[in-house]
Amino acid sequence: MALKITVIGTGYLGATHAAAMAELGFEVLGLDVVPEKIEMLGRGEVPMYEPGLTELLRRHVAGIEGSSGRLRFTTSYEEAGEFGDVHFICVNTPQKHGEYACDMSHVDAAFDALAPHLTRPALVVGKSTVPVGSAVRLAARLAALAPAGAEAELAWNPEFLREGFAVQDTLHPDRIVVGVASERAERLLREVYAKPVGAGSPFIVMDYPTAELVKTAANSFLATKISFINAMAEVCEAADGDVVKLAEAIGHDERIGRKFLRAGVGFGGGCLPKDIRAFMARAGELGADQALTFLREVDSINMRRRGHMVELTRDAVGGSFLGKRVAVLGATFKPDSDDVRDSPALNVAGQIHLQGGQVTVYDPKGMENARRVFPTLDYADSALEAARGADAVLHLTEWREFRELDPAALGAVVSERRILDGRNALDPELWREAGWTYRALGRPQA
Ligand code: UDX
User: Fold this and answer.
1) Ligand 1 pocket test: which of 92, 272, 277 has the largest number of ligand atoms within 8 Å of its C-beta?
2) pTM score, two decimals?
3) What percent of the chain is helix, strand and coil (3-state, nearest 5)?
4) Range 4-206 classified under CATH 3.40.1000.10
């Protein structure tokens, strides 16, 4: 009999995982405690913007014409417990308010709600990003709360998907990491992932703590790489160097690699910032805080970029934002997403607004979320509208749409042809030829 799978939590991670499991051929039941989300998903609608996810979902959601019918949704833990052989926990682990540590309340609540309904052998698989040591604790809790006792087992299987590429990353992962305590758990996970493993994804088996650490280590490395190049941008600015050329040149060294060396306003989102902070907090609890003090520096370099962007803009408009109009292109933390969590773009927009500037924001997909977080900013329906009458235009999220903007058309509506590229993604020559003053982080002023 084919395994039946439940996916608990239907955010970016869970919704994508549920649809991907159905695509791999399993019967899947997705669960969330928010009824509106479940209703939307049940109609084949995705509560967020993620390229390709709606199509994947609609191929499998039961009741949609032409679908495989393998994917259903519920709010009932009882139904999930009865249905599943393998239960994936995909709830979020945000940063705690006023603390670096990670908030485990959703994970704990999911385990507490599911465990009493596990009456037969089942494998519970944690996917959420958690502090190392959580799996050992949760395995004991599961065995104590589940009627099936030790037959209700735990595995840890961190997820590395990137927003904007969630579908691709889930169906064709570059590695599958599983932390297990038994051969049975490994066997079940090999069955779940037989297709991607068959297609070449490496399957790496380890213990719980190492599996938990792989995720935080990977995100810390990525954050460090970005802050490294942003630190080089600071030095380039002081020394009249060009960080874009520098990144290109060091990136040709295969040991360094070109990816994640894009200097700019830095990293944001629901993962990297909170993951490095939670990692520092956990290392402190373990008495290993010295090992991670460098992450504090990684964090400060990153946050400094936002302040620097504001200063550059203030200088560009003559030393004060009072009475100045600033257009902000981009609100999401990265392109191809509608996620504005800890977005550098919105942070910069907010700071300029607080300093008296009149800020108008445009983003292709993030407007609704941005309005919710920063209702006091002005919003426009297009880049052109946002730029109307602007004393400075800020490019803060590198959507393709912005790279394809016509500098002449934009130049016709602004008050001053002044652009500041916070992502080093526009072509300086193109803008300068059209009469713009182009400035970017870590690059010489022309
Ligand atoms: C990240 C990890 O990449 C993923 O493996 C993990 O599962 C979740 O966290 P994500 O948050 O979707 O994924 O974004 P990512 O593509 O890593 O970008 C993070 C931030 O870094 C964005 O704000 C992006 O703009 C910024 N960034 C990225 C840079 O500033 N420079 C770069 O060179 C690369």
Assistant:
1) 272
2) 0.96
3) 45, 15, 40
4) no
